[in-house]
Structure formats: structure tokens, C-alpha cells
Amino acid sequence: MDVVSDAISAMRLGHPSSRRLRMNGGGCTRLHSFGGAGFHVVLKGGCRLLPDDGDPVSLGVGDAVLLPHGTGHVLAGSPAETEILCGQYRLDCSRIHPLLAEMPRVVHLPSRVGGHLELRAAIDLLAGELDESRPGSCIALPNLLDLLLVYMIRSWMAEATSGAWPRVLGDPVTAAALRALHSDPAAPWTTERLAGEVNVSRPTLARRFATLVGRPPMAYLTWWRIILTATLLRDTSDTLASIADRVGYGSPYALSHAFQREFGTTPGRYRKAAARGGEGQGVSGRS
């Protein structure tokens, strides 16, 4: 998988949800903060988004806004009728990838002719599925919502004027190295082998990767293997020995020790907490 897909998959819990929100005569709706990401797409009229912490954002027809960190906010409609597609993605924030962690609290993606064509197409498709009355809508809707999240993140990366990760994935050497690590995290990688994979010298890779990503290639790989372990503990019944093999650790003991150092709890306790719906509670995966 690629970095963006892996970052989303590692955090995602359950299925996304969505609903139409209609406001008449300048009404307001409060949405409280929550553990995940939220979004809005203005289908009709206009509104102002008033975050609990930050500046107001004016939204017009076709505008999309992503709240990557579940920031609480108020939607204040225009005097005319306003219709908004609202949605949420449940995320386990104990496994947040630094790409998502550095996103701003509010990402405004204005509607522009010719801009973000994939995002516009996903919004148009979603609008046709919202009533869930068409054949196959129960499958189409959650998949379109997942697609919408990917396109909103892509659109932010294309326009970002700050943040490390748009630069990371825009750098051909570092991006190629990350693709290799994410495609086969269990491989016996070394910095030298990875440099050969992306056709640069070892010092060049080490310097560019550490400068852009903020840690050396093998340190990033170690962290990512532990994040994958947490995902497998949550989503499968695989034994720790099997997981160790899948993520590139020589023994379950070595993996358990590394996992506890990162998450502050044992793999067994983490799995039990996840089964009780306590993902991320009492643990803090560092990024």
C-alpha cells in the first residue's frame, strides 16, 4: 500500500457515517468534538463554520471542508435555506500517522471550475446516493465516503503551503523509499538496501529522508511496524508470533518489548482494550 492509504487504514474504525443537514432562516447547529475526522459539503445555500478554536470559514455551494482532528464547531446557515452533507470518520487517534497529525484543524477546499476534479466527481456521486433508496446504495455510500476522504487529503496536499508531508511525498527519492517500506514492511530492510531500491547512494537517502521525514529510514520503519502490529491486534485474532512474522520481527518477545515501549502497554492488554471498544484509551502511540 501507499503512505496515505496505510495512514487511513491504520486509524479507521468501523464505517463512516453521513447525513443531510437542512437549516432555514439562518439557523445554527452545534457539532461537538469527537475522536475522528469530520467533513461538510455545501449542497445548497451557504453557511459559516465557527470552530471552537480558530477563525470562522465562509462556505458556498460546492465547498468542502475537512476537520481532520474532530474539532468542535458551529454551522451557521444563511438567511435562505441551506443544505449540507455532513459526515464523520471514526478514527483511533493512538495510531495517527504524522501525515495526518500535521494537517490543520480546518481544511477548506473551495469549489472552483476545473479544480480538484476527482473531489468534485466524488461529491456529485455522493449527492445521488444519500437517500439510500437506489439499488446497492448501502454498499456504494460507505465506499464513496472513504473515497471522499482520500480526495480531500489529496486536495489539501496539492495546495498546502506548509507542513512537511506534502514535501515528503513530493520528493521523488523519499517518496520512493516510503513506497518500498510500506509495500513490504516485513522485508529485511537496511538503509543500504533501501538506497539500492531507489537508486541513490546510502548517504543521499539517509540525509534526504531524515531531513524531510524527521527521522532516519530505519527508525521510521520500526515505528511503522509497531503501528501495523496495533492494527493487526485490533482487527485479527492472529497470534503475536504470526504478527511478528508479518511485520518483520524475529520473535514475539522482541515485538512485545518494542510494542510496550511505543504504546506503554503490552500487546495482550492492548488487544483486550480494543475488543472492549477502548482503542487508544490509556495509550499514546508516538509519531
Descriptive key words:
17% strand; alpha+beta; 287 residues; 9 strands
Portion in helices: 40-55%
The radius of gyration is 21 Å
Which percent range describes the beta-strand content?
Answer: 15-25%
Strand order of the largest sheet: 1-8-3-6-9
Q: Total number of helical segments?
A: 12
The poorly predicted ranges are 279-287
The tally of strands reads 9
The string of secondary-structure elements, in order, is: HEEEEEEEEHEHHHHHHHHHH
Based on secondary structure, the structural category is: alpha+beta
End-to-end separation in angstroms reads: 19 Å
Mean pLDDT: 89
**CA-based shape:** globular
Largest sheet: 5 strands, antiparallel
Task: Tell me what the structure shows.
- The protein is an alpha+beta fold.
- The chain has a 5-stranded antiparallel beta sheet with strand order 1-8-3-6-9, covered by helices on one side. Strands 2-7-4-5 form a 4-stranded antiparallel beta sheet, with no helix packed on it.
- The protein is 46% helix and 17% strand.
- The C terminus is likely disordered.
Question: Would you kindly provide a brief summary of this structure?
Answer:
This protein is an alpha+beta fold and 287 residues long.
Q: What's the SSE blueprint?
A:
Elements: H1 3-11, E1 17-23, E2 28-31, E3 36-44, E4 47-51, E5 57-59, E6 64-67, E7 73-77, E8 82-90, H2 98-101, E9 107-109, H3 117-127, H4 137-159, H5 165-170, H6 172-183, H7 191-197, H8 202-213, H9 217-235, H10 240-247, H11 252-263, H12 267-275
Antiparallel strand pairs: 1-8, 2-7, 3-6, 3-8, 4-5, 4-7, 6-9
